[in-house]
Amino acid sequence: MSTNEFPHESFDDLIAANTEYQETFKYSELTGSAAKGLAIVTCMDSRINPLSVVGMRSGDAKILRNAGARVTEDVLRTLVLATYLLNVNRILVMPHTDCKMAENDEADFHKLIDEQYGVNTSSLEFRTTRDQLGALASDINRIRSYPLLRDGVAVAGAIYDVKTGKITPHEG
């Protein structure tokens, strides 16, 4: 196997799609900085195209994704780098409607995974919440009060509606 082959045929469709992508690739002039000064913290849900949602394109913003769009230690670490080194001067925290992370309790996920797959995940914190707006306010405040972020960074929150594409601002 050469170094540019995946070890499993499950990825053949990705390699084929990438070959087509390369034919029209137009991003070679972009830098690693956020051209529009924005970082978006959003969910890993595949219904969300974070750049399109806010009218941006590749190179305009930094995108941080995880289950539930929660502000974790890793998100804070990444935002510190982004605000000092990658031109980020505003941060949008953007969870979404119809999110499983906002419809279940922590214990529900642990139980489901254990019962269906026999895996004990109790050592993990999934950061679920049934109070999505409260969690959003808390996460916004967590970023605003984080002492290592660059001064002057604007932080806001909005809920993305997966059925309409609308974002509704929410203050923290």
TrEMBL record:
<keyword id="KW-0479">Metal-binding</keyword>
<dbReference type="InterPro" id="IPR001765">
    <property type="entry name" value="Carbonic_anhydrase"/>
</dbReference>
<dbReference type="GO" id="GO:0004089">
    <property type="term" value="F:carbonate dehydratase activity"/>
</dbReference>
<dbReference type="GO" id="GO:0008270">
    <property type="term" value="F:zinc ion binding"/>
</dbReference>
<dbReference type="Pfam" id="PF00484">
    <property type="entry name" value="Pro_CA"/>
</dbReference>
<keyword id="KW-0862">Zinc</keyword>
<protein>
    <submittedName>
        <fullName>Unannotated protein</fullName>
    </submittedName>
</protein>
<comment type="similarity">
    <text>Belongs to the beta-class carbonic anhydrase family.</text>
</comment>
<dbReference type="InterPro" id="IPR036874">
    <property type="entry name" value="Carbonic_anhydrase_sf"/>
</dbReference>
